[in-house]
Amino acid sequence: MNRASATRRTSPASLPTRQTGIGLVELMVAIVIALFLVLAVASIYLNVRATSAAQDNLAQLQDSERLALTLITTTLQSAGYFVDPTKDTAATALPATTVSREDGGSTAFEAGQPVVGTGDGKGRGSNGDTIAVQYQTARNDGLMNCLGGTNTTQETAVFSNYFAVNANSELTCTVGNGSPQVLSGNIDRMSVAYGTDTDGDGALDTYLPASAVQAAGLWGGVHTVRVSVWFLDTTKSLPGKPVPLAFPVVQTIDLMNRS
Question: By C-alpha distance, which of 193, 203, 243 is closest to 223?
């Protein structure tokens, strides 16, 4: 064996390749990046979810507004109507009556009186304003009460409809001597003002709350009704802590045979 072969060294290229893993620093950097990505995705998801919930609440609120105002308007527009003015007067078609409801309350109408109410425009829930109207309807004439019912009897009939907001923030309507039926929820209060002829010249000249109309005996001089409904902000209200919207929905309604 010669010296050259005895002292020959293995070249670096012929050595086995050394395997290296991920270091601790690289692992920590990867974890931090992954956490940022997860947080970003979670934030986007929560924002989309909150936006969707807010849109759903807004849609429900708008549906409640439309339903409440449509039912009130349609019903109140019929106040004082009677079928045949060539034969009857308001007093004979709508005789004096007291309507006693299943909830224990009652409403008294004088002969020919189309509308009556209670409240001073400031109360809420069971202390809020109420309004009741009556009108005559013929068989199958399509004139509906606040629950969508029509006169299917063989004779003319008188419908009475009573609107109120209960302690559960619900708009209710009672037909005749029945029980209150919920029409819409998420309502803070309802305020009713009556366009009244206070000087007897046949034209309305001022809007008064029911308490003032009652005190002055002016129910016979009511020409229009202005209903203001404050709805609850469903995105801010919490159980036991209702938050009303800043402005009411207002509808002015002319009464039949009064404008």
Answer: 203
- Model-level pTM? 0.76
Q: How far is CA 66 from CA 59, 62, 121, 142, 185, in A?
A: 11, 6, 22, 21, 12
Q: For the chain, 259 residues long, give each residue's pLDDT as a single digit of tens.
A: 455 554 555 555 555 555 566 677 777 888 888 888 888 888 887 777 766 666 666 566 566 667 778 889 989 999 999 999 899 999 999 999 999 999 899 999 999 999 999 999 888 877 889 999 999 999 888 888 988 889 988 789 999 999 999 988 899 999 999 999 998 888 889 999 999 998 888 788 899 999 999 999 999 889 999 999 898 887 787 888 888 888 888 999 998 766 5
Could you tell me the two tokens for 61? 């609120």
